Amino acid sequence: MDTKEISAMIERRLASIDMPARPAGLYEPVRYALEGGGKRLRPLLCVQACRACGGSAEDAMEAAMALEMFHNFTLVHDDIMDHSATRRGRASVAAKYGENQAILSGDAMLTLASRLISRVPAGVVPAVMAEFNEMALRVYEGQQLDTEFETRKNVTVGEYFEMISLKTGALLASACRIGALIGGADEATADALYDYGMELGLAFQLRDDWLDTFGDAATFGKPIGGDIINEKETWMLITARHDSHGDLDAILDEDLEPEEKISQVTRLYDRLRVGERCDAAAAEHHALALAALGRAQLADPALREFFEETVDRMASRKL
Amino acid sequence: MDTKEISAMIERRLASIDMPARPAGLYEPVRYALEGGGKRLRPLLCVQACRACGGSAEDAMEAAMALEMFHNFTLVHDDIMDHSATRRGRASVAAKYGENQAILSGDAMLTLASRLISRVPAGVVPAVMAEFNEMALRVYEGQQLDTEFETRKNVTVGEYFEMISLKTGALLASACRIGALIGGADEATADALYDYGMELGLAFQLRDDWLDTFGDAATFGKPIGGDIINEKETWMLITARHDSHGDLDAILDEDLEPEEKISQVTRLYDRLRVGERCDAAAAEHHALALAALGRAQLADPALREFFEETVDRMASRKL
Asked: Interface pTM (ipTM) of the complex?
C-alpha cells in the first residue's frame, strides 16, 4: 500500500466511525468536525509507524481514528476558547452550532476517542491507553501554557519550546509511538519514533510561526501578520524582544494601525535576521527528526522514505 | 468496614488522586471541583457493589475515583452551559476561574477519569472500560435531550423518562455494574445491580423535581420554585400541562412576577394532585429498585441493607 492508498483508507474509515445515530443534535457536530478535512497527519503517522514496525494498516486503524478524533476534539474546544468563527475555511463548530453545543459535542468526541483507543489489539491495550491519556494531559498542559503566555511579556525561548512540545509535539510524537507499539516495535524503536514525531512537531510549529509573517498570503490561507497583531509569543517575537533591547515593545506599545504594526515589526525582524534564524531553528529540528528516525530499527525499511518526506514537507512547507 | 469507613476512605483517596503538579492553573480547578463535597453517592455505590459481589473496597477504588471524577467533570461543564455561578454553596469552577479555564480543566478531568478507569484490575479492563465509555455517551445524550426540551412545549412523560434515565440514571446504574464486574459478579447479578442503580436514579430525580416545588426552603439549599420559573420540563410540569387542558400554559404565558407565577402553578399542581402523583411515581421506582436488588445474588448479603437504605434515603429525602 502506498501513502495515497493509506490516506484514502483513513478517510473512508473516518466517514464510518461507529457512533450512535441519535440524538442527532449531539452527533451531527461530531461528523461535521471530522468532515472538515485537514492533513490527517496524525492517523497517517500512526498507521505508517505501525507498518514500519511490522504491523498492518488495519492493526493501527482504531488508534489512528482515536488520534484524529482527539485532534479534532481539541480544535472544537480551542475554537470556543479563542472565539474563532472559522476553521479550515468553514464555520467552526462553535460558530455553526453554538458554544454550548460545541462544549457538549466536543466532550462526546473525547469519549469516542477513548472508546476507539480501547479497541486496539488486546496485547497492547494497557501500554497504548497509558500513552494516549498521558498525551492528552500534555496537550491540555500546552494549551494552558499558551493561554498563560497571553498575559506575559517575559516568556523565554525555553518556555516557548516547552509549550509547543506539549501543545503540538506531544500528539505527533504519541501518534508515532502508539503506531510503533501496535506494530510490535521494541522500546528503543518506539522511543526513536516518538522523538521523530516530537522533532517533526517542533519543526512544523516553527515553520508555522515563520509562515504567519513571511508566508505568501495567496497560499497561507490566513491573513499574514495575525501573530504580530495578536502579539503572540512565537519564537520570532520572543527572540526579537530579547535582541532588540526594548525596540520591539516600543513598537507594540504604540497605538498603530494593524498594517503599520505588521510592517514595523517585520522590518525589525529583518534587521535582526529573525526570519532566517527561525528558519534555521526549524532546519535544526528537521535534522533532529531525521537523526531520531535513524535510531529506529524498522522492520520495513522501505517506509523510512515516508517519514523523511513527511518531515521535509512539514519543515519547509510553503503553506 | 461500615459505610462510614468506606466513605472516609473515598474522601481520603479523592484528596490524593494522582495528577501532575503543574501547570497549577490547569489542575487547581480540578482539585477545587473535587473538594466541593457532595454525597459521593457514585463511588460509594461502586465500592459497595464490588464488596457485595465478593471483591474488596480496594479493588473498586480506582473505578470509584473515575466515576466521581467523571460526575464532577459533567458538573463543571454543565455550569458553563447553564451559566450557573454557584454549586454546592460555593462559586462554580466557571465563575471562579472563568469559562475557558472551566472548559480546559473539565477536559483534563475527563481524561483523568479515563486514566483512572483504565487502572481497574486487569481481568475486567475491557468490560469496565466499555461500560464506562457507553455510560459517558448516555450522559451526554441525556444532557442533549434536556437542552432540546428547553425550546419545546410538547415533551411527553416518556421522553422525560428517557432523558432522566440517560442524564441521571445511567451513571448511577453503571457505578453499580462496574462495581459488580470488579467484584466478580455473574452477568445476571451485574444486570440486576445496574437496574437497581437506574431505578434509584429515576426515583432520585422525581424526588428532586418534587422538592424543587414542595420542599422546605430552609433545608433544600436552592430557592423553591426555580423549575417553575425556568419552565423546566419536569414530570410535574409535563403532567400538569397534559391534564390541565391549557390552564398551565395560560399561566406560563402571562407576564407574572416570579412569586405569583410559582404560587399559581403550585395551586394548579394542588388542584390536579400532581405533587402526590409525582411522589407516587418516585415510590414506584423505589419499589422497582428494591425488586431489582432482590434479583441480585449477593456474595455478601449483609450489604443488601446498604442498598435498601440508600434507595429509602434518596427516594424520600427531604433535601
From this structure: 0.96
pLDDT of residue A38: 87
- Ordered by where they begin, the domains of chain B are 3-315 (1.10.600.10)
In chain B, residues 127-186 whose CB comes closer than 8 Å to chain A: 129-130, 133, 136-137, 140-141, 143-145, 147-148
Q: Which tens digits make up the pLDDT trace of A53-66?
A: 999 999 999 999 99
- Yes or no, beta carbons of A77 and B104 under 8 Å apart: yes
Q: Quick one: three-class SS letters along chain B?
A: CCHHHHHHHHHHHHCCCCCCCCCHHHHHHHHHHHCCCCCCHHHHHHHHHHHHCCCCHHHHHHHHHHHHHHHHHHHHHHHHHCCCCEECCEECHHHHHCHHHHHHHHHHHHHHHHHHHCCCCHHHHHHHHHHHHHHHHHHHHHHHHHHHHCCCCCCCHHHHHHHHHHHHHHHHHHHHHHHHHHHCCCHHHHHHHHHHHHHHHHHHHHHHHHHHHHCCHHHHCCCCCHHHHCCCCCHHHHHHHHHCCCHHHHHHHCCCCHHHHHHHHHHHHHHHCHHHHHHHHHHHHHHHHHHHHHHCCCCCHHHHHHHHHHHHHHHCCCC
